[in-house]
């Protein structure tokens, strides 16, 4: 890990269509100020510059995405535990697609380190703290070998200067997030469903329920096995292509997953077509209505149906 790859920089990156995304939640109150920062395309180079003196661990995530929700509190807790030995920089890929492109992100969450402006890939997906401590120890070792031994300056908490607290989440949304963090997908689904029962127009609850249902469907699946089986299946094989589309969307490949289901719709009829169409509409809820992938897929769906 002592030989990072080429320096990273946003200069020259293609500006992908920005997707409207919810605001990232503030770090936990137990996390000292300064250990966790939210990075945008405007502040990206500042963080790269900071990596010249302090190891930076970059978490590329998507607000509201299941594994991202699970990983975030773990990474915050580790940043606190390590006491400023590294800076945790969170990047919402939906709001900052150019940064995702620079790092060639294929799925979220993706975590990497930046040392002296150079990236070190670390891992993808959500993992327990016990699995991540050895990874972070290797990052610190690599940083030391490259002469990066600084620490994050932790700001003192001053009650008089503190910013107003973020408004609390609606109870059913908070209950759902708490359940997801506890790996209780059934409890999360029940909380989101409660919100929809109370307000059928609750878009946050609808999107959350769709995300939880997706997580439940892909639990226990082997992504490579599912995708290989789909590649060998007939275009109208619903049983093969529905789980493959789930895997693709769960890994952030919205366009691929949507296109797969539209392909099934084009060559099927009756119950098979209805199943593919229903799944596609469910997956649409996982992205903003005006996301380019959703807009294109809705247009293609209309053509496929009529």
CATH topology of the largest domain: Glutaredoxin
Q: What is the approximate shape? A: globular
**Mind telling me which CATH architecture of the largest domain this is?**
3-Layer(aba) Sandwich
For the record, what CATH class of the largest domain applies? Alpha Beta
Mean pLDDT over the full residue set: 85
Level of helix content? 40-55%
**Termini, distance in Å?**
54 Å
In the residues, how many domains can be counted? Answer: 3
| Structure annotation, total helices | 12
Structural class: alpha/beta
In the predicted model, the low-confidence regions spanning at least 5 consecutive residues are 1-21, 157-162
Pfam families: Thioredoxin (PF00085), TPR_20 (PF14561)
Organism: Ruania alba
Keywords: Redox-active center
InterPro entries: Thioredoxin-like_sf, Thioredoxin_domain, TPR-like_helical_dom_sf
């Amino acid at each position: 890990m002592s030989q990072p790859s080429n320096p990273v920089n946003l200069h020259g990156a293609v500006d992908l269509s920005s997707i409207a995304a919810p605001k990232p939640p503030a770090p936990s109150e137990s996390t000292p100020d300064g250990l966790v920062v939210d990075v945008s395309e405007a502040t990206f180079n500042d963080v790269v510059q900071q990596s010249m003196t302090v190891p930076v661990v970059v978490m590329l995530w998507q607000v509201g995405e299941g594994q991202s929700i699970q990983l975030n509190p773990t990474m915050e807790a580790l940043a606190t535990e390590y006491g400023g030995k590294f800076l945790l920089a969170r990047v919402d890929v939906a709001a900052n697609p150019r940064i995702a492109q620079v790092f060639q992100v294929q799925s979220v969450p993706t975590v990497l380190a930046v040392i002296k402006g150079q990236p070190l890939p670390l891992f993808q997906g959500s993992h327990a703290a016990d699995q991540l401590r050895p990874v972070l120890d290797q990052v610190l070792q690599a940083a030391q070998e490259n002469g990066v031994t600084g620490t994050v300056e932790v700001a003192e908490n001053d009650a008089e200067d503190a910013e107003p607290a973020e408004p609390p989440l609606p109870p059913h949304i908070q209950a759902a997030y708490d359940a997801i963090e506890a790996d209780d997908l059934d409890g999360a689904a029940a909380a989101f469903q409660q919100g929809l029962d109370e307000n059928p127009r609750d878009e946050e609850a609808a999107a959350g329920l769709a995300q939880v249902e997706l997580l439940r469907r892909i639990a226990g699946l082997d992504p490579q096995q599912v995708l290989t089986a789909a590649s060998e299946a007939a275009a109208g094989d619903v049983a093969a292509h529905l789980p493959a589309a789930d895997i693709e969307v769960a890994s952030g490949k919205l366009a691929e997953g949507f296109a797969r289901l539209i392909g099934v719709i084009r060559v099927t009829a009756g119950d098979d077509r209805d199943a593919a169409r229903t799944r596609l509409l469910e997956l649409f809820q996982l992205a903003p209505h005006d996301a380019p992938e959703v807009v294109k897929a809705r247009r293609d769906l209309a053509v496929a149906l009529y």
